[in-house]
Amino acid sequence: MRTQVVIIGGGPAGLLLSQLLHRDGIETIVLERRSRDHVLSRIRAGVLEWGTVEMLRAAGVGARMDREGFVHDGTYLAAQNRGFRIGFKAATGKPVMVYGQTEVTHDLYAARDAAGGTIIDEAEGVMPHGLDGDAPHVTYVKDGTEHRIDCDFVAGCDGYHGVSRGCIPPGVLRAFERVYPFGWLGVLSETPPVSDELIYANHERGFALCSMRNARLSRYYVQVPLEDRVEAWSDDAFWDELRRRIPGDAADRLVTGPAVEKSIAPLRSFVAEPMRWGRLFLAGDAAHIVPPTGAKGLNLAVGDVHYLHTALAAHYRDGEDAGIETYSERALSRVWKCERFSWWMTTMLHRFPEQSTFDQRMQEAEIAYLETSVAAQTAMAENYVGLPY
Ligand SMILES: Cc1cc2nc3c(=O)[nH]c(=O)nc-3n(C[C@H](O)[C@H](O)[C@H](O)COP(=O)(O)OP(=O)(O)OC[C@H]3O[C@@H](n4cnc5c(N)ncnc54)[C@H](O)[C@@H]3O)c2cc1C
Question: What integer is the mean pLDDT of 338-344?
Fold first, then answer.
């Protein structure tokens, strides 16, 4: 087989890149390790930056999001059970959109199928070759038979555990990492959300977040020690802990129900540099991870795809390679700013095991400053709705 761009990974980054390149008249083949049902059942991100919303519309996959998504003009922050609101729209002119990653992925698969796009799922042993030359190819095994695809470029959109990042030689690749000493226990429940906007809560027992997917589906999280096991948390224990950490009025109106999904996710900040090596480009979680506190993971993947698809479009349309040459530098410049925001939100809102009383006062002062300063609120809002590309 031959194509112009092989995309490794059929998550949001890979599918969106494939869809945008298709609209630019560029051929792709997507190789996905898991089954489609598995990819579509993953419960992950829920908050879209406004730039992400506009990119999905430009890719021709915004119609259902615009019908079913919820536009949020702000969010609530809380400290020690007392909350206040930060208005994104008032501060920046832009809101965010609440629309689940599962739905985004669903819409992207539907668009690729409608356009006759090639997505090969359950592709095993995917391996790129010849990335530092002019004629790369990718091999994989499907139903016991090995296949080879020749191509011009390879896009590594295969997430943190993918194969692509490891193709960059050790002497070239640099990794920067912080692992946080706690995780998030998340519960999805078929109950109405406790609030019309998200609530981020700092509390002496640990962080909590009230989020949602739609009017009947809520997503809640509490900070837990890394050693905790999900089986040890009954639904009742989860709801009791959440109630203790959020503002009293929210705790009073919280509607609880059985968890339809319950999991613990560790928190990590990670960046790999560079994001391009020869004819390989990394995009999304393959190159960077953020703790979910700032709702940036999926949005960062979309930002990378913006830089990459415009670079590849300029290459094929005009023979112009400046976008390819500067892809890593441009993407990383935005990535690091978003890493900073996610690290800042995480540091401000969580209890750290070694936290001193001084650290505690610093957190309280930071939150009090946010409550009272228009400048501080604007800086937070500007980052939350998404920095420009
Ligand atoms: C529990 C949780 C909650 C999250 N909450 C948020 C949030 O609120 N807001 C937010 O913005 N982000 C959030 N994120 C992060 C967000 O989900 C990711 O940043 C996003 O999925 C990145 O998209 P991606 O396409 O780069 O990677 P992925 O979604 O990881 O997709 C990569 C794909 O590549 C495939 N793959 C891997 N290896 C191979 C291989 N060798 N060959 C072929 N295919 C391969 C994988 O199966 C997968 O389908 C959350 C993540 C988790 C885990």
Answer: 98
**Which residue lies with its CA nearest to atom 42 of ligand 1?**
33
**Is 296 known to be catalytic?**
yes
pLDDT tens per residue across span 153-198: 999 999 999 999 999 999 999 999 999 999 999 999 999 999 999 9
For ligand 1, is residue 303 a contact (CB within 6 Å)?
no
| Catalytic status, residue 200 | yes
- Give this prediction's pTM: 0.96
Amino acid 267: pLDDT: 97
Q: Give yes or no for a contact between 86 and 77, defined as CB atoms under 8 angstroms apart.
A: yes
Our answer on whether the CB atom of 163 is closer than 6 Å to any ligand 1 atom is yes
| Rg of the chain, C-alpha, whole Å | 21
How many whole angstroms from 22 Cα to the centroid of ligand 1? 22
Q: What is the Å distance from ligand 1's center to 194 Cα? A: 27
Question: 256-265 in b/e burial notation, b at 16+ Cβ within 10 A?
Answer: beebeebebe
Nearest Cα to 98, choosing from 56, 65, 55?
A: 65
